[in-house]
Amino acid sequence: MSPQRIPRARLETGLGRRVPAPSENRLIFSNRRLPSEERITSLISLMTLEEKMSCLGSGKLTRLGVRWVESVEGLHGLAQDGPANWLPKNRVRTTIFPQSYGLGSTWDPSLLELVGRIVGHECRYVWQNKELKQGGLVAFTPNADLGRDPRWGRTEECFGEDPHVVGELASAVVRGIQSEKKGYWQCASLMKHFLANSNEETRYHSSSNFDSRQLREYYSVGFRKGFEAGGRAYMTAYNAYNGIPCTIHPFIRNITVKEWGMDGIVCTDGGAYRLLMTAHKHTDDPGIAAADCLKAGITRYLDDYLAGVKNAFSRGLITDADIDEAIRRNLRVQLKLGALDGPKTADPYASIGEGPAPWLSAPHKQAALKVTRKSIVLLKNDSQTLPLRRSKIKKIAVIGQRAGEVLLDWYSGKPAYAVTPLKGIKAKAGPRVKVTYSRGGAAAVRLAKEADVAVVVLGNHPQGGEQQEWAQVQKASYGREAVDRQSLDLEDEEVVKEIYAANPRTILVLQSSFPYAINWSQQHLPAILHITHCSQETGSALADVLFGDYNPGGKLTQTWPTSIKDLPDLLEYDLTKGHTYLYSKAKPLYPFGYGLSFTTFKFEKVEADSTALGPDDTIHLTVTLANTGSRLGDEVVQAYVGLPDSRVYRPIKQLKAFKRVTVKAKGRVKVRLAIPVKELAYWDEASHAWVVEPGRAVISVGPSSAKASLVTEVQIRLTALPPPSVSQSCGRNVSRNPRRCQ
Q: What CATH number does residue 626 fall under?
């Protein structure tokens, strides 16, 4: 019987066939000894059409004894009690880490893998605890988008602007969240938002336009690396790419499924199905919109889709086979989470949920403190202003609106406890040092005059302000989901000027979700620190750094401009027009990779194991790094590669390897870095393939993109090289001479 002829009443039971009772076939889909695909086929055969359609959203399979695994937010901790929580049941508090922007500043994949494990563990606990039984095991994390522009309102959710950093950190989170063991996942990682989602106010209808080279070499790298790490789920973006909404774009099937083997969940963003009929004006027909999503490769809708899918099915726009294909991919993830096993499961994570809440445990608290410490970036420290010496200080004035609070962003859960900067400083200073506090104004100036040192804590409000409406912010420099920043100026920098005039020994703690053009502060203040929002250990970690109990080693993963005028148009997605350190010619306030320490380091030597390599080889580097100061400290060894002989337009240098290392005072270490030659390939549109070119690879090593001055060269040798297409030279039709592209 054709789908068009099925009576409406029979949509509830399927294609006119007898649906077996669950008891007839349940042993097949719950039998762990059988192949996964056979188990999934068995389960699908037992479903009514209504049940199948439910599996395109929040599956309703209780008749079959299957508890459908729901989704949760988890960017920097399980957000079960956060503002974006859409499953309001029993409230819980969880372990909350710094915003993703701060996690990026750690430059530490192993640490982010730990964060992922903790998020996944707490998801499991909440889902399986007998008293809670809420949340879900498909965590919307990490955000693998790239922070190509600091005006983007959701910069706080990304790891940075560089594809290599984002790829390494995103894949670490995926590994940690999922923690695969005995064929099971602790939790599933669902990356977002594919692709090029980095503007807010026009995101529902705008198109991110750029060539296929930038798609492959830049915008998609974080997602590809996440899939290579085992990820099998992602969310499409609201925006269009080159005129086609990402929700229905051919790249879903052509790239992520066919090329990358992404055989799991592909979900819309919330409301994106409806946006096809409104903002994007793709169609005004709900059935066509629902069908186009499914045909493109969407397997799950995050809005009210059911009427549209039923309409599409009744009209023959989609078939039973189309639905089966989509839900099969969703069920692959459900199976990895143990949802198809029944009560007698071999899932090694099935016992999580017993015992005390993990967010109250010492290991989770210690992890939050460790991560927050590592996320802090020292931006300036003249005359060894920091660390503070308790023996020489009698009074500290703590000033600023952010000093007495720990603010949460839209995708944050609520922590079991939170240490504010003021509380952390008071605890660390001890009883012999008097700590005073004022939010600002004349009282703050008076306290600063009376103090030995003033610590001013200022920055944005991650939700746009107190009790702020959706898509609204109180200040031009604020940003959040649905709102892009209109300014990079720190409006409250006037407070710093007043305090500095009262006490030149003023330290600025900039607590922000994105870069600020703090030119005056950089020029005048003796010391500046950057820290992000949300961490439950904000105050403790900050105090540890201020008083020298921890030596900061964080680095910026985004270029901080001196002016908003140095940036191209926000909707200009062609990076070659001046976005990021890869292509910008403007002198930054702080370059990509920048961050100071209380000690000093010297990059003494870099050597390559081999200076002649083929396309399947790996460049192995040994970097000799010395700590020339008097304190133990962390340095991030960064290796950038330039390809001066390339026949296509390339950045002068691009990060290809990094490692954060700890070095003892007066100590020396040898740091090993590896760069696969294939990572130096460019995407050739004509041959639709990656191309490794022969010629020199100039490798520069150092503590930042601006100071990578230790140089070595290797030679890449090939036997044959296909000619590049003209359009690949600069991402547009211009001369092949790279010199003319710059």
A: 2.60.40.10
| No. of helices (H) and no. of strands (E), the chain | 20, 24
| Helix spans in 89-162 (H) | 100-105, 109-128
Dist. CA 730–CA 742, nearest whole Å: 9
Q: Which of 264, 327, 303 is nearest to 50 (CA)?
A: 327
- Assess whether the previous peptide bond of 193 is cis (omega < 30° from 0): yes
Listed as ranges, residues in the chain with pLDDT below 50 are 1-17, 724-742
Residue-wise pLDDT tens digits, 225-284: 999 999 999 999 999 999 999 999 999 999 999 999 999 999 999 999 999 999 999 999
**Co-location of 576 and 458 in the same domain:** yes
Tell me, yes or no, whether 569 and 656 share the same domain. no
Lookup result for tokens 């499991």: 124
- Domain with 469, as residue range(s), is 374-583
CATH number, domain of 396, equals 3.40.50.1700
Mark whether 431 and 482 lie in a shared domain.
yes
Answer left, alpha or beta for residue 512, where phi above 0 means left and psi between -120 and 50 means alpha. Answer: beta
pTM reported for the whole predicted model: 0.94
Q: CA-to-CA distance for 80 and 97, rounded, in angstroms? A: 14
| Cβ atoms of 192 and 549 closer than 8 Å | no
> Could you tell me if 506 and 610 lie in one domain?
no
Is the domain of 451 the same as that of 570? yes
- Judge if 548 and 612 occupy the same domain: no
- Does 496 lie in the same domain as 431? yes
Q: Are 300 and 328 in contact (CB under 8 A)?
A: no
DSSP 466: T
Residues 379-425 pLDDT 10s: 999 999 999 999 999 999 999 999 999 999 999 999 999 999 999 99
Predicted confidence at residue 736, as pLDDT, reads 31
Q: How far apart are CA 708 and CA 702, in angstroms?
A: 4
Contact call for residues 619 and 674 (beta carbons, < 8 A):
yes
Peptide bond into 738 cis (omega under 30): no
* Domains in the chain, number: 2
